[in-house]
């Protein structure tokens, strides 16, 4: 009986001893449509940063451009046109109750939409 109890205890502890835990959920950012009333050549200068990320250009729509972001951290999204910052806002996944957002531009406005489906291009 004692041997069986010992074996069950080892089986319960073994996965934790080897670091086999459930992976923590993370957040992702997708790029969406870039529909601005400017010539295509000028659009190439427009990019964003999320927190401390590298420059992210709007070359491919409906593409995951950042992932593994902490759901409980506040990130600042900055939009730049060349060297000039044109817009900024805060992003926090847990307050939006999603793991993915899409950042896109309509004529005159920037948007950040939650993606509850978890897939780029779907809402």
Describe the structure.
By secondary structure, this protein is of the alpha+beta class. The protein contains 3 helices and 8 strands. β7 and β8 form a beta hairpin.
Topology at a glance:
Layout: H1 2-17, E1 27-34, H2 40-43, E2 46-50, E3 56-57, E4 63-69, E5 75-81, E6 84-91, H3 93-96, E7 100-106, E8 109-114
Parallel strand pairs: 1-7
Antiparallel strand pairs: 1-4, 2-3, 2-5, 5-6, 7-8
Primary descriptors:
four-stranded antiparallel beta sheet, 3 helices, four-stranded mixed beta sheet, Immunoglobulin-like, 123 residues, single chain, alpha+beta
Largest sheet: 4 strands, mixed
Strand order, sheet with most strands = 4-1-7-8
Helix content: 10-25%
Radius of gyration, CA atoms, in whole angstroms: 21 Å
CATH architecture: Sandwich
Number of helical runs? 3
Oligomer: single chain
From the helix content, strand content and strand pairing, which structural class follows?
alpha+beta
Average pLDDT over all residues? 83
Total number of domains: 1
CA-CA gap between termini: 55 Å
User: What general outline do the C-alpha atoms trace?
Assistant: globular
In short:
This protein has 3 helices and 8 strands; from the N terminus they run H-E-H-E-E-E-E-E-H-E-E. The longest helix is centred in the N-terminal third of the chain and has 16 residues, at 2-17. By secondary structure, it is α+β, with helices and mostly antiparallel strands.
């Amino acid at each position: 009986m004692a041997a069986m109890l010992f074996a069950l205890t080892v089986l319960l502890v073994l996965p934790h001893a080897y670091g086999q835990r459930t992976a923590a959920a993370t957040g992702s950012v997708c790029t969406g449509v870039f529909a601005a009333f400017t010539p295509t050549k000028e659009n190439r200068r427009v990019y964003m940063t999320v927190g401390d990320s590298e420059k992210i250009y709007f070359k491919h729509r409906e593409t995951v451009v950042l992932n593994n972001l902490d759901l409980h951290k506040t990130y600042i999204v900055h939009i730049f046109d060349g060297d000039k910052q044109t817009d900024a806002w805060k992003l926090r996944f847990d307050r939006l109750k999603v793991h993915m957002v899409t950042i896109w531009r309509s004529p005159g406005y920037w948007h950040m939409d939650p993606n509850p489906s978890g897939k780029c291009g779907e809402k």
